[in-house]
Amino acid sequence: MKTGELITGRPKSDAGARVVTLTEIIVDDLVWHLQRFAKSGLPEIPIRDLRHTGNTLAAVTGAIRKELMTRMGRFSTKAAMVYLHAAKDRDRAIADAMGEIVKQGLASAEDDDEDQAATEAKIN
Fold first, then answer.
1. What is the rounded distance in angstroms from the CA atom of residue 2 to the CA atom of residue 49?
2. What Rg, from alpha-carbon coordinates, does the chain have?
3. What b-and-e string marks burial along 32-50, b requiring 16 or more CB atoms within 10 Å of the CB?
4. DSSP for 74-121?
5. What is the 3-state secondary structure (H, E, C) of 49-81?
6. pTM confidence score
7. Nearest by Cα to 16 from 67, 69, 66
8. 118 pLDDT band (50/70/90 cuts)?
């Protein structure tokens, strides 16, 4: 791939032979772009070059590492991590999600305290 030439044949590993499900919202646009590219006379850009963006978006959905590795066709964690990039806005989303977990835990603790107080009042 370093030369930019199209290589056909079996993937480097068995994990590379897979079907990747795409979201419906991009399929029509992807087909349109591929058709226009073919007619333009410009050098082809392999779809596989979109893997960094696609895999980062998949990670943002909350997919677990094994799911991401399967989508990527990667057998090792090290190889998979090459294609995952931190999204700048994810830090805020992660912090907000952590805050929601804490809020839920606090609300649950308050409910437990109220239940305990009601039980103690009934006993006395």
1. 12
2. 24
3. eeeeeeeeeeeeeeeeeee
4. -SSHHHHHTT----TTHHHHHHHHHHHHHHHHHHHHHHHHHHHHHHHH
5. HHHHHHHHHHHHCCCCHHHHHHHHCCCCHHHHH
6. 0.47
7. 69
8. low
